[in-house]
Amino acid sequence: LSSLITCLEPVITIMSVRRVPWVTPNHSRPMANRTRRTRQTRTRMGSDGDFVPSFAGGISPERFAANSLKRMITHAAARIVLKQMEGIAPQTGTGKSADPGAADVNAPHHHTDAERNVANIANRQKLLQDMLTDVPMGADPNEWLLELARKDGLLAVRVAEARKGYCQDGFGWDDVRRLCSEDVDTDNQTLLQAIMQEQYGGSDKQQSAQ
């Protein structure tokens, strides 16, 4: 029996190593940290078992897409808030405030609270429109929101809350997956047809010319 165990020991060792292919355990760290580390460093595999390399900076394709979506959702949230303010303030047919002095909240002709409220909304509407037009959102939408907060903190909070609500309840996540899948299928078919045309259609033209 001892000789059999001795013969099987290399096999047992190899099987044990294969079961933990990602990281070397560090028993000096808490279990939660080791588990999180294992999840971050494990080899990523696609749905068909292909290796999925990380992008620059070590981020996954999913994280890269999430960052892009967050920037787009932040921009959409700012547009949502802008549209809400347009609906609150009195509007003309051209989309501008019917009050010619609404751009100045401290204008002397704003005698009532309602007038001052309309003027305040008009000011914030103009500020948000200028931010969307003149200030690029860049790679990190939080930097854009911080810049907005330096000018109007409540408006920045409102955009952030609109972003959260749109992300959770308004954005069509299933539609994104469906549309992307459909586009990839369609583009692949178009690409294959173009390749076939280049490879075989071109050969036929050369033979005809000869």
TrEMBL record:
Keywords of the record: Carbon dioxide fixation, Chaperone, Photosynthesis
Chain positions covered by the region annotation Disordered: 28-50
Record bears the keyword Electron transport: no
Keyword ATP-binding in record: no
GO aspect biological process, one term: carbon fixation
GO molecular function: protein folding chaperone
Domain of life of the organism encoding this protein: Eukaryota
Name the UniProt record assigns to this protein: Uncharacterized protein
